[in-house]
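Lab notebook, bench 4. We co-purified these components, and the gel suggests they stay together. Before we commit to crystallization screens, I want a quick structural picture of the whole thing.
Request: model the full complex, all chains together.
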Amino acid sequence: MSDDKPFIHPYIPNSVPAVKEQMLREIGVQTLDELYADIPERLRFRGRMDLPEPMTSEAALKRHVETILSRNRSCAESLSFLGGGCWPHYVPAVCDEINRRSEFLTAYAGEPYEDHGRFQALFEYESLMAELLDLDVVNVPTFDWCQAASTSVRMAGRITKRNEVLVADTAGPDRLRVMQNYCRGVMSLVLVRHDPATGGMDIEDLAAKFTDRTAAVYFENPSYLGFLETQGTQVSGVAHARGGLCVVGVDPTSLGVIAPPSHYGADIVCGDIQPLGVHMNFGGGQAGFIATRDEERFVMEYPSRLFGIAKTAVEGEWGFGDVAYDRTSFGVREKGKEFVGTAAALWGITAGVYLALMGPQGMRELGQHILQKSQYAMKKIARLPGVKVPRFRSPHFKEFVVDFTATGRTVAEVNRALLERRIFGGADLGPDFPGLGSCALFCVTEVHTKDDIDALAAALGEALR
Amino acid sequence: MKPRAFHQAKWDEEVIFELSTTGERGILVPPVEKGIEDEVGDGISGVPEFLRRKVPPALPEISQMRVLKHYLRLSQHTLGADLNVDIGQGTCTVKYNPKIYDVLAASPKSAELHPLQDESTVQGALEIIYRTDLFMREISGLDRFSFQPASGSAAILAMASIIQAWHQTRGEGKTRDEVITTIFSHPSDAAAAAVKGYKVVTIHQTDDGLPDIEALKRAVSERTAGLLITNPEDTGIFNPKIDDITRIVRAAGGLSGYDQANANGILGVTRAREAGFDMCFFNLHKTFGTPHGCGGPACGALGVVRELTNYLPVPVVDFDGEKYVLRRDLKHTIGKVRSFYGVFPAVLKAYAWIMSLGERGLREAANVAVLNNNYILEKVKKIRGASAPFAPGRHRIEQVRYSWEKMTKETGVTTEDVALRMADFGFHLWSSHHPFIVPEPFTIEPTESYSKTEIDEYLAALKQISDEAYRDPAKVKGAPYRSVVHRIDQGWFEDPAKWAITWRAYLKKHGNSG
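Here is the predicted assembly.
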């Protein structure tokens, strides 16, 4: 495109030359370049950015992007058993309807007046999660579970004034990496061994490592490897006896049937809300929650926005606003608690919609459904010769480890054979859990039918033949 | 021109728990097939008694249409950019987010991708990430990008982490314990550095509104780990000595990180490379047209110079000549700052935005954003009681931090009062980040997305409110009148005995009668 023809773009109304000239005149300059007078020549970029010619037609752009995207084969076109931090669940149409509304999609940081709905929807999200978790304080979402876990242990560090955290060595690998980076220079992370038979925490190792420097112990339930930690009360008991806290990461879809961590001594609970009505989005649907009791020493350590309810000048009218804003970095910069900013609010609103649709009965049925389906899948796969499933002798929820070691096959080989049958097999645990042998993490939810599971078992049988 | 006779929707909508009727259902879970029940029973028996939930969560029970209606009403109580002239949330770069991008991101080819799929099945997604990296290199002059940070603040944290790792690999991790920033840089430039254990040194501005370079010279030492700074800062004044600043920091042994969360006025005009930065980041949800979503999901695209590419979070996307691959073997990687690869839909939309505009369009967007901003500057200066502190007579880049100080002194009407009155005209007016160096501040950033007519309408509302303030200040102080709610009692937000962050906390503290 030649530079002398006017460039009028549909996204840039004042690219119309006559309008531009009028505005320049009102400013009192001849050319647009004069407005950049403060940028000295040595800092001016006089080259040309090597970018494509503009694709100003929406039709052409759509076709271009769709062509690239067509090189993907999605979970909708395949049978996927991948989980491990991003899970396939049914997304109710109402969830998409709400989060695609222009009003929510394009709002940002308005006041609790003209953006009253944004504040109310997020207050309700906090409130709905609070019921699920049986705790009185929940934050406006952070980036994901990794960040929620990181902030939870930093909160524990500030509350206890201690700088070491014990972490179950079965914690999600991404969680561990993000926590390690987030704590580096300020807190240290020490791993606690698991019982090789059950996967549960080795309580003796925990007790030996929990000292007066330990701020908290962190574990996940269900664990990253899918088994349920049945010793929650013992773990929190050790922490509390030594003046520390218990931090638990939890899958919210389990909480219709499984006791929330607050019932076995957790002080800070965190996790991800992607499974509550958000599409997987190649890992872009994650959003993290943090929850605690309503005690000042906890509340004042949150870095997040916390939206509260209030009265207004008019009787019977609900207002909303920021609780204890001056603890945040928005209020007091580096003297605030960690930092706050844009994170994943839209997914918080969406998870609220999901929980409102599901209600208590829906969450119970969902949990039960996942228990039944995953138990069925484990039972079916266990019938295959040489395959050990579940690898850990514990109750499981949603995910489980399949051990192929005795078959002599690697997970990569098995998954390649499954892929030929349009099945995405479980995530290979080899890189992150080398001690486990040839193991994969499979995920089964309410989106899988009996036929799907039977098809997986049959395909695995063929792959291993 | 007069502002329109706006009135926001006001549904007097209940809090969702008040809508509950025992037994109603919003959506049903599919029944488990009989064949499965026969094999495994009720499923719950497999969980030890003590680990089962005894009392169901007290979620509301509401039929589907009522849930939908509730949230649609709340949406109408929210003023998204698609509905207003969203130029009053300065620093936030609230521009048009083209609808076609949402259509593309909603495709199952994007929405139904799992991040752990075999690489052969996600070549399209990896290609988008890789190509967007190439675009960002052109725009910044830097050498490689990661899209893993899920916001600007997360990208700042990643920059602080790279600063830390860089000095650690050189044996100076312990001694270099200070990060320098400026008071008009985003609060997270200070706060995220503190998260990494750094002592934060904040440089204030001189009379020209720019950071005090002599103070910077005094601040650097063998303790300096790095610098995190914006330019233009929140004032919209371009700092012509920015390369001196990065040079001073480099000479002291520190790295310089450029907070380009908002680069909307300078695309193609000036770059991180020429200014001597080692790192930079762009907020895709600001400059690159992806939606703000009430505050995320988002992406802070993080770029570094060649010497720092091995420090980026992993994985990064490479192209081996035939296929796109995820690479995790970066020698000094800081590890991860978010799960998986960041917020893919934001990258997809930013890719589409750059494709829509191309080289020329990016420059045009920047130029028109600056044109709009300086047009507004001329007009706001003429509004009684308003002023634009610092740099008199100079042009600004993409935004201006203004002040109502004069009006507050003369009438008692504050920025907050004006902001609430603006709600009556269907507009936002944001004060500014704390601390308020500029008294009674407000920040306007028009971007390229709004027409002159729309901008004039916004200005007309400001003008009318100024007139009201001088004629009848009580009118402004009583606002809003045509928004969703009236002045909110702030007393419940600071007192632990009263605050209620959830409905159950409200019921415990204030009872059903309120």
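The CA atoms of residues 302 and 358 of chain B lie 21 Å apart. Worth comparing against the SEC data before the next meeting. DSSP finds 16 helices and eleven strands in chain B.
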